[in-house]
Amino acid sequence: MVGLRSWFLIAALAGMLSPAFGQQAAGQTTPLPKSRPAVTAKTDKVLSDTRVYLLRGLLNIFSLGMDELADKLKQRGMKAEVYNHDSWQTVAIEIIDIYKRGEKPPIVVIGHSLGADALFGLTERLSSVNVPVALAVPYDPTVSHEATKNVAYLMNFYQNNGFGRTVVPGPGFRGELKNIDLTKDESIGHGSIDKSARLHDITIAKIMEIACKSKPQRKPRKPATPETAKTNVATPPEPASPRS
Length: 244
Hints:
Elements: H1 4-13, H2 44-49, E1 51-55, H3 65-75, E2 79-83, H4 88-100, E3 107-112, H5 114-128, E4 135-139, E5 145-147, E6 153-158, E7 167-169, E8 176-181, H6 197-213, H7 226-231
Parallel strand pairs: 1-2, 1-3, 3-4, 4-6, 5-7, 6-8
Helix pairs in contact: 4-5
């Protein structure tokens, strides 16, 4: 059975709730950053190492902007996968397994609506095993949340329209947090904020900036075996022939 909050979300997506329904959330807000051109100072290898996980919202059908954003990221050479918000624990297991294998790619998590709410459960789970998150981007979370200490940068797009809420620093958080209030932007709403090309551009620019600041992964060198060690030993020069 669909819960009460889910019914309100359906109503909002259908345009049945007025902006006055919302109550101003506490927290500092930041002006909408300008979209910057893609960062190209580093190699494609750095971008291809970046792992981006996107979480859809209600019923897995109202957040197709996450799929659009994933396609744009793939076009730039990044690994991007889209999941239902109910699958955030599966995503956490996948990321933890990557780190257990010794790989440490930049991790980016993005979510819309209930997917934005699930994003915080995901970062908290990763925090419990000391897996860092390079960037978290919630699109209009439906309730207030705290940024977990393992997140380096959090950019929260929200509208004060009955659901969008600001994010506050949680215990131990030392990263950078920006709440971007889009309440006055009448061109978008809760059901369309995830599809905004302008917000996609801003998100992509931030992901590429963070990815290019990261060092490319280097696989650990295998220790030399006696066989391989012999091949690396320089051959001594031949002794000079005695003069006649």
